[in-house]
From TrEMBL:
Alphabetical UniProt keywords: Disulfide bond, FAD, Flavoprotein, Oxidoreductase, Redox-active center
Organism for this UniProt entry: Alkaliphilus serpentinus
Taxonomic path: Bacteria, Bacillati, Bacillota, Clostridia, Peptostreptococcales
Domain FAD/NAD(P)-binding: 5-297
InterPro entries in UniProt: FAD/NAD-bd_sf (IPR036188), FAD/NAD-binding_dom (IPR023753), Ferredoxin-NADP_redctase_2 (IPR050097), Pyr_nucl-diS_OxRdtase_2_AS (IPR008255)
Pfam families: Pyr_redox_2 (PF07992)
Molecular function GO terms recorded: oxidoreductase activity, acting on a sulfur group of donors, NAD(P) as acceptor
PROSITE patterns on file: PYRIDINE_REDOX_2
Protein name: FAD-binding protein
Superkingdom, natural source: Bacteria
Amino acid sequence: MEKIYDVVIIGGGPAGLSAGLYAGRGKMDALIIEKSKRGGQIVSTEEVVNVPCSIRETTGPAIIERLVEQVESFGATIVKDNIQEVDLSGEVKLLKGSNGEYKAKSVIIANGAKPRLLGVKGEGKLTGKGVSYCATCDGDFFTDLEVFVVGGGDSAVEEAMFLTKFARKVTILCRESALTCAKSIAEKANCHKNLEIIYNTEITEIHGEDIVEGMTIKNNDTNEVKRIMADEEDGTFGIFIFIGFIPQTELYKGLLEMEYGYIVTNQDMHTNIEGVYAAGDCRVKSLRQVVTAIADGAIAAVQAEKYLESKACNNISQAS
């Protein structure tokens, strides 16, 4: 007889692993499907200090290793596969991957979202080593250093102002001739004493071996190219990139309610389809952090458990 899981969790980042942990503790037959590396974006982070109880193990890989061990100890199974097609319409959900098909009574979607990259040389190598996509996560690391923020939208400018709490100077590099954020936000930025804005400018290369040491910028009006190196005493500076995030939800378009590509849920992680939940960065939410992803996963798993219990009770009532 073909196996039907109580819950299949798509995505093995913090939200998916947390869901697997709570599903396992709830004695559910749970399967986590991750297409690449367990842990998502956090495994590329060398130092994590804003996850509760991470003070002794501050690297992303160490935190995920402990979480995976904990998840598996409660009976959840983790497999590597890339889900390419889903049918969420029936009581039994069908998921088709590169390596096989999976059936489940409930599904938790935890595919996450990826920051939009500049796509310049040195960016990938120095991500987590001076290049960041999260001011809340990494701002404190740049206390009394210089920081450059790439972008001109609401998030970029708001995060730039947040970074002034830590950095001695913050410079926004805006590729347009004006900020594209709301006027009220732009007015605050223009009045900020520790914030400078350079227009018509973009980064073409990031330099450094084990840490950001400099960058090359280009003026889009004059085509002037300039190399900026870190202050000798500092040895580095921060580059925070805020040019948007890409939710990994293409698979569910036309099936689930979305806003700008993010899955809409209620506070209990319910989507518009019964028995289908979303957790973590792929859903509409105000804060995308490891700690909120973990909370989402826990809630989604508990709600899936309650859903299965209600279905079982209904079946007993109908049978009697």
